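Re: your question about Solute carrier family 12 member 5b

S., sorry for the slow reply, the queue was backed up all week. Below is exactly what I fed in.
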Amino acid sequence: AWTESIVEFGQKQSQVFPSLPADGNPKESSPFINSSMASDMEKSQQYDGKNMALFEDEMDTSPMVASLLSSLANYSNLPTGSKEHEEAENNEEGPRPSKKPIKAPQLGTLMGVYLPCIQNIFGVILFLRMTWMVGIGGVLGSFIIVFMCCSTTMLTAISMSAIATNGVVPAGGSYYMISRSLGPEFGGAVGICFYLGTTFAGAMYILGCIEILLIYIVPQAAIFKMEGLEGPEAEAALLNNMRVYGSLVLGLMALVVFVGVKYVNKLALLFLACVIFSILAVYAGVIKTAIDPPVFPVCILGNRTLLTKAYDVCAKTVELDNDTVPSQLWRTFCDSDALNATCDEYFSNNNVTEIQGIPGVTSGILNLFGYYLEKGVILEKRGLASVADEEGPSPTSNRYVMSDITSFFTLLVGIYFPSVTGIMAGSNRSGDLRDAQKSIPIGTIAAISTTSIVYMSSVILFGACIEGVVLRDKFGEGVNGNLVIGTLAWPSPWVIVIGSFFSTCGAGLQSLTGAPRLLQAISRDGIIPFLRVFGHGKANGEPTWALLLTAGICEIGIIIASLDAVAPILSMFFLMCYMFVNLACALQTLLRTPNWRPRFKFYHWALSFLGMTLCLSLMFICSWHYAIIAMGIATCIYKYIEFCGAEKEWGDGIRGISLSAARFALMRLEEGPPHTKNWRPQILVLVSVDAEQNVEQPRILSLTNQLKAGKGLTIVGTNVVGTFLNNYADAQRADQSLRRLMETERVKGFSQVVISSNLRDGTSHLVQVGGLGGLKHNTILVSWPQNWNQLCLLFPEVVRETTIASLALLVPKNIASYPSNGERFTEGHIDVWWIVHDGGMLMLLPFLLRQHKVWRKCKMRIFTVAQMDDNSIQMKKDLITFLYHLRIDAAVEVVEMHDSDVSAYTYEKTLVMEQRTLILKQMHLTKNEKEREIQSITDVSRGSIRRKNPTSLRVPQIGEEGASVAERPEEEVHQIIPINQFNLRRMHTALRLNEVILKKSKEAKLVLLNMPGPPKNRMGDENYMEFLEVLTEGLNRVLLVRGGGREVITIYS
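Result:
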């Protein structure tokens, strides 16, 4: 019975979480924790059993293991690829009576990875340019190119296998892997580059298709006739034909893709068969040359290769009925048919030779070294003697086979590299694989190994079988217009011609099918806002708008029209994509994140780094200017995504780098305090929030923003009164309020909210625990309390704590009158009253403020106070010199304050202040009554009349019974109170300084002033606040500054 109940419980659990889409949200959505998919009724049914009563309180957020395993079993990972579109189109044909269950992916390694990779890797370059590359670069140079490119793709495949086997890879293939490994910025940039590479690959395949059609199958179909044209005119006619036919084929292919992807998928195997049969035909031809070399003559004049159309027989004259008759070749080079006609000098001086174009693999020829040509140079056979022209051949000669392009090693790399791309085909189909984590590494590496062997063997076999002049003949003009690789094939050249034609058509269709879906995946991720429109499509999900954009970009490649010019472009984009795949693997390996656990174990960060270096090197080897343009495009996209704020968290490696770098930097900061030259204000801003958890004085963050020229740490902290268990929600709201305000005021930093039983402790906690390790605040910014009579015990304590902790303190008074970030002062002064040395804070703060546009136009003035025994003239000179060495521009003024008698008003202020303090000590009133009493006494003290000789004052006394003053007769409460001389001197200083400051800085935009320290005896806190009020009375904006006990500015470099 216990076993049956467990089984029943497991069956209930297996119905809780239906399959969820992978990675549909900015953060990885989990179908296991906090799932809201199940209804309350289902949840209540889950917990009816009593076997797990101990955990029933947590089951609402932490489901049972049976539920987790059931969700994994039902998890669907079908990609948004062609398979769904094909199914959707089938569904449109008629309504189905019932929905079919989702079939589990059935493709294995062979059909799902190996053959698609083979089909995508083998392509147009193998058939149209491989022989030419061997002829130009030689076997040695071509083998180096092939080995370098194949090594790059093999290393990339190893890195890709590690990433692909580190968890489930949904649709999107390489874009998904890079974006989830390197973050949305890199993912978006590389995703667009991969999309552009795939799109230009489509253009290259279409151009290859048209080249085969117009040159080798039906040359007479050319709209722009090339007969009789020479040099640039013939080249222009060919390119125009490519543009016209290429645009038509592109439109036709786009229509096929739009109408139905299922037709493309069904033809894929046919196209693959064409590729495989063509390659087998080449190998069969090579074997045949060893047994029976074909008769394949090439006509050579001197050492120059002749065009096939320039002769009928390879001879100057022919014997016809015992008569010597001039051949067509004679008529081509001479001005008449007569044997004594005037002929071309080179024709007259050299003999015509017929050589075997395909001597065979046993002939011993080996085109080992390269033979690079300038554009317009005649193809010549090495080793044949010839008598050269004195004037040289005519550049527009229509008699010889000539080079159509200037060739060099790096050009060959750029043209060849697209023939090794396509290694992502398996990872792109990960959703269709039965066991993706097993199939992707095996299938991809096996496909690359197979293709690499084919390419390397082809280089050697072509060089060993075919004559060099035939290899260098790109369009087969010297071999009767045949495709050169076709001349080697058995049983017929048409096997290669037809096979390569269909394979290029199929590859073009695959590119036009895959590129729009890649763009749609990027658009639906929402990381590039202006591409979101391309995420929409037909009702069945077909990416219509993305297909239109893809066709438009593909048309750009068609307009370029030259296969040799388009190939390096897509090489750049693919190389950049592969480079970042290697970077992603290297980063994940070096960071050793706990989630990095690939099933594929044969990887190493050094291999990934080598692959990344090879990709970067190949980019600049192929074409440095294309490489810079491609990197510029990627950088612009990266900065655009960063600027628009990619609010995505994919657990990427860049964030891991940030964490590792932050940890390393924090550990370095722990080694010791920063040097004075590196000191900058790391500000902890203390703010208060109201009952709705909104900041009461938001203007203080404007001032924080204006001080950000120091580029230091900023922490905005506040306190919520209560307990952590009861007031956590309030703290969260306060934190959100702080973040919103920081974003509004453009303050880059961190917010911190503490919950404590009272405001005093909360402020102390923030001062103590703000920051982390060596990255801690060194400056406290707190506004002057609006009603300090109620908070008189808190503010002096903050001052004391900052002094003990050796922290600087900034106290802006009248913070509401400070300018916002949008205001501008067109003139005015920032006045610094430098009374005591505070380490240079008073000098540094105006400099930082003037870096901001609000204060930029304000001029700086520095005032210092001279006593009777000071030499004010010398003080001014010394201060000017000091400022010069500090590199600070400021006007200097020394203010002399002579000793004077204490005024009657000073006595009055001091006496009323002490009277209030005494009353606070003796009165036992309720809190509200005490606040009213304090306020009334304060108002009286500030508005009282001045007396000439107030030597004493009658102060009301309160009896032990606590009776109020009004209940006692006046004569019973009169008493003579002596004045504290210490307080009197302080009040005198405050009044005199205030008088001088008002006289000099009344119109200043901001006054910075040394803040005196609080009394050691806490009983005098009320007096301390009164002194500061008197010191700053009548000034609009005052910033009280108290140094942290260390130098913050230096004259040394």
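The longest helix spans residues 173-217. The radius of gyration is 43 Å.

Happy to talk it through on Thursday.
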